[in-house]
TrEMBL record:
Span of domain Peptidase S1: 1-91
Protein name stated in the entry: Peptidase S1 domain-containing protein
A GO term for molecular function: serine-type endopeptidase activity
Keyword Disulfide bond attributed: yes
Amino acid sequence: VPFISDEDCRYKYNYYPSQIEHSMLCAGYEKGGKDSCQGDSGGPLMKHKADGEGLYQVGIVSWGFGCARARLPGVYTETAYFTKWILDTMKAMSE
């Protein structure tokens, strides 16, 4: 699914009570049709590496309104935002 800028995502969810935080990112098709859905929470949002050799995780399925709805992208936790915490936690767990 294509990524959506933070500005566009905030605009799309402007009339809903949920807020798009800096630790979130949005992805989905403008016309809908493909998206994460109920039961997908906690699953990965993957992106192809620039060289085309493999994938890396950029997000974690968080929430959205319905499934694959037009003009309402899925909302994901942005993995990069929490990289330091992830690394610190992994280090502490291995000690």
